[in-house]
């Protein structure tokens, strides 16, 4: 079984990562999340779990207003035009150990997700703070991009920064 929300938040505190926590009803979309934390300022994230033809998996985490073009991304990754698609729902549970609506860069803390690559929107760096779900979509946490990257590095992950054109 993967880490729980409580275990992840405890790990972030142990790593001395500063964040603010906001409880809210379960949300499945960025638009729904915005109703509860959008007024606080900062960047809301959308997170896609993708798979290529060679069964490699990726989490793409981008600002909510970033246009994520899978064809363009596929070409940039050297996979050809149709090389990326949404990962099957069962892979959420098997690899990320989260249910639908809970994909987040923090999903990579689970050992089963060690071979999943994280592609992070460069525009997060322009935000004072950003919002992500901590493995559960009934909570959002706000943290700086520096703290996000620092926490991921301390947890053994290195995100690849992407610039969208």
UniProtKB/TrEMBL annotation:
Superkingdom, natural source: Eukaryota
Alphabetical list of CDD domains matching this protein: PrdX_deacylase
Record InterPro entries: ProX/PRXD1, YbaK/aa-tRNA-synt-asso_dom_sf, YbaK/aa-tRNA-synth-assoc-dom
Keyword annotations: Aminoacyl-tRNA synthetase, Ligase
Ranges of residues in domain YbaK/aminoacyl-tRNA synthetase-associated: 24-149
Listed transmembrane segments: none
Molecular function (Gene Ontology), one example: aminoacyl-tRNA deacylase activity
Keyword Repeat: no
Family to which this protein belongs: Belongs to the PRORSD1 family.
The protein's name in its UniProt record: Putative prolyl-tRNA synthetase associated domain-containing protein 1 isoform X1
């Amino acid at each position: 079984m993967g880490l729980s929300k409580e275990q992840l938040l405890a790990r972030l505190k142990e790593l001395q990562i500063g964040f603010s926590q906001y409880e809210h009803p379960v949300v499945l979309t960025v638009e729904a999340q915005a109703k509860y934390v959008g007024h606080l300022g900062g960047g809301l994230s959308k997170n896609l779990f993708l798979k290529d033809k060679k069964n490699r998996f990726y989490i793409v985490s981008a600002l909510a207003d970033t246009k994520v073009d899978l064809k363009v991304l596929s070409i940039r990754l050297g996979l050809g035009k149709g090389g990326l698609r949404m990962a099957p729902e069962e892979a959420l549970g098997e690899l990320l150990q989260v249910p639908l609506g809970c994909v987040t860069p923090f999903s990579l803390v689970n050992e089963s997700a060690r071979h999943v690559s994280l592609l992070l929107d460069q525009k997060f760096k322009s935000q004072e703070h950003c919002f992500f779900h901590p493995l559960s979509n009934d909570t959002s946490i706000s943290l700086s991009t520096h703290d996000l990257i620092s926490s991921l590095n301390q947890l053994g992950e290195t995100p690849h920064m992407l610039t969208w054109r």
